[in-house]
Amino acid sequence: MNSMIMLLGVLFGFLNQADMLPVKNSTELQESKARLKRKYSDELPDFDDMTAMDQILEVNSKLRVPRGLSFKEGDIAFSYVRSAIDCPGNACLWPKSIDGFVYVPYILSPLYDDMDRITIETGMQDISAGSCIKFVPRTHEASFLDIQPRYGCWSFLGQTGGSQTLSLQTPGCMWSGIAAHEFMHALGFVHEQSRSDRDHYVTIVWKNIMPDHMHNFRKHATNNLNSPYDYSSVMHYGRYAFSEDGGPTIIPKPDPYIPIGQRDGPSALDLHKINVLYDCGANE
Q1: Residue 115 belongs to domain spanning
Q2: Is 185 within a domain?
Q3: Which of 32, 156, 230, 280 could form a disulfide with 132 if both were Cys (CB 3.0 to 4.6 A apart)?
Q4: Is residue 110 part of a domain?
Q5: Is 6 part of any domain?
Q6: Distances from the Cα of 156 to the Cα of 16, 72, 284, angstroms
Q7: Which residues are catalytic?
Q8: 181 marked as part of a ligand binding site
Q9: CATH number, domain containing residue 199
């Protein structure tokens, strides 16, 4: 019994001393964790508060690219180089009906549950409520969106013709803002910071970008539709997108503290640009 008490006493003393020892590199560990957490997160506290693009990059960072496809800017699928925003004669845009609406047929995978369907349809409605775009279940149309819970969140750019996959993985992509983001790609829009005039509004901090992802920050020869640059666009990258070491990769100017990107859905300017591109007329 005495030996047991003595053993416990020695063990207690050892643990007490261990508590007093300094933790090696504790500050560096905390900084490393913080750096990792804000890699795509615009310094926001958790996944739920990321911008739509931050969430997409987080999900797609684990994506195994489907055979025959490549991705640019993190979530734009292509099998050959093309851009709906500047294709000749707007041939890559969805056609406008005689009644003034642009009907985008779609089919929704039966693998989605009721909450998934509500989330995706909310993303559609957020676009339709402020524009002449109407997403309609496909009946016989030759060209349509095939919305599938594939790996990751991605879309082709503009109308490609025939069955056109748009991937919204569940649960990772199940946010109406993410759905709206991918639908805007399908309508023909690139990311906001890829605009041809972006250097007037943001600084790209190239030294902070992961070397393998610098191509995601190239500018496009876009038709900017005489519209102002939109820091609040649902199509805008977050401040730390593709950051190599936790430093910002995009800094707004002249005010570096302007918030960029969001996850709520299309901004007023996003809807304005849809209306201009598709000549929505009275609905603008």
Answers
A1: 44-283
A2: yes
A3: 280
A4: yes
A5: no
A6: 61, 10, 25
A7: 182
A8: yes
A9: 3.40.390.10
Residue 220 annotated in ligand binding: no
Number of structural domains, the chain?
A: 1
In order, the DSSP letters of 75-144 are TEEESS---GGG-GGGTTSPPBPTTS-EEEEEEE-TTS-HHHHHHHHHHHHHHHTTSSEEEEE-SS-SSE
- Per-residue confidence band for 78, with pLDDT thresholds at 50, 70 and 90: confident
Global pTM?
0.79
Between the two ends of the chain, the Cα-to-Cα distance in Å is 87
**pLDDT(212) > 70:** yes
Tokens encoding 176: 């109406």
Give, in degrees to the nearest 5, the angle at Cα 50 between 249 and 25: 65
Statement: residue 135 has pLDDT above 50:
yes
**CB 267 within 8 Å of CB 70:** no
Q: What is the DSSP string of 211-231?
A: GGGGGGG-------TT----T
* 213 is known to lie in a ligand binding site: no
